[in-house]
Amino acid sequence: MPGYQIRETRHAIGGHVYRLRVLSDTQQFADPDGHSARIGISSAQWSLFGQVWPASRLLAQAMQRFDIEGKRMLELGCGIGLASLVLQQRGAHIVASDAHPLTEVFLAYNAALNSLPALRYRELRWDTPLPALGRFDAIIASDVLYERGHAELLAAVVERHALPEAEVVVTDPGRGNSARFSKLLESQGFEVRQEHCPMNDGDEPPHRGRLLHYRRGNRP
C-alpha cells in the first residue's frame, strides 16, 4: 500500500476528455522516509500537488489555444500536470517540472491512462539553479504565487530559463502577489497582458481569476 488514497477524475478540455488519477482529498499524507520534510514540503502542503485546482483547469484551457509551433515549453509546479498533458496531446515539446517526490509517478500514470507518450519530467526546486535544464521559448504555471516570496523565486526561475524572445503564461486565482511578479518580469523586459477570468461556474463578475501573458522580444 502506498500510504495514501487515490481517485479518478475526468476533465473536458477542447472537446477531449482527460482521465486523471489524483489524491482522494487534501488530507492525504505519506512521507515515510522524511524526504518531503527535508526539502521543505510540510504535511499541510504535501497533498496539494495531487489535485486539479481551478487555476490548473484555466491553464489547461489556455494551452489548448496556445500557439505551440516551434516552441520548447516548460511547466513550473506542474502537480498532476493537466496543462502539460493537453500540450502532449497536441504534440508540443513540453517539459513538466515540480519538486514533489510523487509528481513523476502520477504524471507517468496519467499519461498512460490517456494513451499518451510519457511526459518529459525534471525535478526542479525554484530556489536551486539547474543549468542543465536549459532555456525555453515558453514557460507556463498555474497558482504558483500563493506566498509572498514566490514572486521573487518564480521571477528568478524565468530569468534563468527563458530565452531572449520568450513568453510566460501564469494563471492565478487572485491571491494578490501577481502584481509584484509582473513588476519583476517587466524589469526583465517582458510586456504583460492581463485577462480576468472566472475560476469556476459560480464565479460571477468581477472575476477574481487572472490569465497573465508576458512576452519579450519580437515573437508574435
UniProtKB/TrEMBL annotation:
Basic residues bias spans: 208-220
Protein name: Calmodulin-lysine N-methyltransferase
Region of interest: Disordered: 195-220
Pfam families for the chain: Methyltransf_16
Keyword tags: Cytoplasm, Methyltransferase, Transferase
Enzyme kind, highest EC tier: transferase
GO molecular function: calmodulin-lysine N-methyltransferase activity
Coiled-coil blocks: none
Assigned GO CC terms: cytoplasm
Superkingdom to which the source organism belongs: Bacteria
